[in-house]
Structures are given as structure tokens and as C-alpha cells.
Amino acid sequence: MNRHLLRDLSAAAVAALLVLTAVLVGRAIEHRDGSLRVGWPPLLATWDPHLGPGTPAALVVAVAVVVYGPGLAARLPWRPLLLAVWGAGLAWTWSLALVDGWHRGIAEQLTTKSEYLPVVGRFHDIPAALRDFSAHILIDTPDNWPAHVAGHPPGATLTFVLLDRVGLGGGGWAGVFCITLGTTAAVAVLVAVRTLADESFARRAAPFLVLAPAAVWVGTSADGYFAAVAAWAVALLALAVRGHRPGWTGFASGLLFGLTVYLSYGLTLMASIAAAVLLLGSRRPLPYALAGFAVLPVVFTLYGFDWWEAYRLLVTRYHQGAGGVRPYGYWVWANLACTVLIVGPATVAGLRRTGATLVRRSPRPDVRLAVLVLAALLAVLVADLSGMSKAETERIWLPFALWLLPACAWLTGVRGWLAAQAVVALLLNHLLLTGW
Questions:
Q1: How far is Cα 31 from Cα 23, in angstroms, rounded to an integer?
Q2: Dihedral (Cα; 205, 209, 213, 217), 10-degree rounding
């Protein structure tokens, strides 16, 4: 065993110890006073070993990607590779979601009392709903919004309102929408990595983007959809700064970045990744990106929604609910254990290699990839220290976590690491009933 692989395995072992500690300490705290407000700390889940309709398909997809994924990623032409990654990601995410069955795993996920779909009927007059949105954020206000609606800007809820308007209402269509768009995020990450670093890195990372344990939460939480919007914003910005129709791609990137901040307040931290992209290319498309970014804030403001006021009220609402009870002293490190579970042991080993890349004289493409990955890690750490993400980060941090996965491109013994990723995802989905 060479020393690099030994260090990779050591990093993965330390991460596994962090997860085990979070589980044991979390169970002790929850047994003592219930202040964590999760069923199986550090995840919002309950212990429920089970099989389901998606189990055989999940096993087949996992084996196929482990055995054939690296070879196909190296040989396929670029565009067919992107389609293959999306198709395999769809198969993996759908099969994992269907382990819990159609109703429990997909159709009912976005219909619970804390989710978006129960309030679709209150948006029959969209302009009026936007003007009145902030008046229902606090728990003690009349007809207060459910937790997820109150916890996000109205763009998140409007997505499902508009789906309902075009005849795709209900939990089933919402789940299909989130999975279909959420799985495109892997394609966007590959486009950005190829554009900013090197195609060989993108090809080596491709199987890891397919088999990421994060797929457990991409199917079907709305945060998987948010992650895809943010990922395409970054990918388009990468194309712009590297000279690919900078006006159009820059403007489209800005438009999507503008949408992200109306899907989730926390996605303002995507600015860290955007800054890394600008650092790695030309700043000439920046005016186009800023023009695109301004569009949706102007529209929402003209319709009467004040983003800053809503965020101020959200901070109060957060502390009125579970966020005010959950102890920061546990979650500030247990959130990182959640991150280990969504990115898997291979990514932890890849992050070790990322750090090593920056401390030694490495080729320029390696440094470019390292900068992109570390920008995502910075976003995770800022979100963690903020105290506004205590628990449930297995879904909330999906938009940042996806950008950690390309670090796997540095790994050797690829099939072993891919198998480890698949095992983590399969165990999570078959031993636990997750909240999403």
C-alpha cells in the first residue's frame, strides 16, 4: 500500500470516527433532554431497516457504475458522457427514492405540513401573496407559513405554484420535478470542472458525481432542485469567464444566481464559489452577470417583497422554533458529520488530496480544481459557524456539497472508493427512514 493511499484511508477513518461520535453523543443528548429535535442524530431520520421496490435497481446501478463507470468516463465522447452521467444519476436517485416506495419515497415528501405544497392554494393572487408574504413568517402571526415556506424566500414556493398552474400539481409531479432537475447538477459540475481546470479531471470525477450519497436527499427534497439551479449558475459563469459567448453566458449565469437567492437565503454563500470562478478566469463578463443578477430582485421588489425584511423576520422565526432549542455546541461539529455522510468517504480522501495539492508545487489545472473545491468548503464552514444551519444540513448544504465531489478526481483505487460511496448511500437509505 503506497503512502498516499494510506493517508487517504486515514482521512476517511477520521471522518468515520467523527460520524460515530456524532451518533453516540447525539443519542445521549436526545435521550437526556430531546433538544436536538432529530430522530437519529445527526440526521433528521428514524431507525427503520427496510427493503423496497427500488432495492434491486439500486444494487444494479451501484454495481454497474463501480464496474463500468471509470472506463466509460475515460472513453465516451464528451457530450455522450454528460448524457450518461445524467441518465445514471437519474437511475441511482430514482432507485434510492423508491426504496421507500412511490408514496412514502416520492409523492408524499413535499406534501407534509411543514412543506411547500399545502400552501399552493394561498397563492391564487401571486402579487398579493408576495406583498403579504413577510406578514406570515413569524410563528405568532395569523395564518403563519409552514416551516419551509417561512424559512425560504417566496421563489421556492412559487416554483410549485407555477407547476400547479400548468397542470403539474400534487406531490408526485413535484417529486418528479425535483429529481429530474436535481440530477442535472452533476452535469453542471462537470462542465465547470472541464472549463476551469481540465477535461481529465472532469472525466475522473464523473462516476463519483453519479454515486454520491447525496442522491438520498436529491430525491426528493426541494434542496436538490436548488442545488441544480446554483450549479448551472456556476457552470455558466465558468463558461463566461473562459470566453464562451461571455455576454450571453454571463447574463444567464447572473439570472440564475439571482434566482438562487430567492430560493434560499443560505444560497447567498454561493458567492464564495462564484468568486473562485472569477478568480480563475476573466472578469470581463462581470457586468453582464451583474445585469442578469439584478433582474429578479427588481421584479420581486416591484411586486412588494422585501428580501432583507423577510430575512430579518426569518432569523426571529428560526429561534422561535427548533433552531432556538437545538444546541450550537453540538451542531457546530455534528453538521460536519452530516456533510461526511452526504459526500461520502471518497470525498473526504479527495479533500485531503486537495490540501496536499496547494502545499506542494502542482500543475496549474490541479491548483484550479483545488481553488474551486476549497471555495465550496469555505461556504460550508461559513454556513456552519453562522448558527443558522443547526441540523438538517444533509439537505440544506446540498448546493455546496456537490462542489466538494470533484476532489475525488485525485484518488487512486477508484473502484474501491466508488464501492464505498455506494455502500454508504445504500446503508443510509435501507437502515434509516430519512425526512426527505
A1: 12
A2: 150
DSSP state of 140: T
How many of the other CB atoms lie within 10 Å of CB of 199? 14
Grid cell locating 200 = 481529465
- d(C-alpha 384, C-alpha 221), whole Å: 20
Query: pTM of the predicted model, to two decimals?
Result: 0.97
What is the mean pLDDT of the segment spanning 277-297?
A: 97
The string of DSSP letters for 106-135 reads: IITTT-STTSSGGGGGGGSSHHHHHHTGGG
Rounded to whole angstroms, the maximal C-alpha distance in the chain is 65
Write out the three cell numbers for 434: 430519512
First to last CA, the chain: 39
Q: What pLDDT does residue 1 have?
A: 62
**314: nearest Cα among 265, 381, 387, 260:** 265
Are 304 and 125 spatial neighbours (Cβ–Cβ below 8 Å)? no
Cα–Cα dist 59/63, whole Å: 6
Q: How would residue 384 be classed by pLDDT, with cut points 50, 70 and 90?
A: very high
pLDDT digits (tens, 9 = 90+) for 178-195: 999 999 999 999 999 999
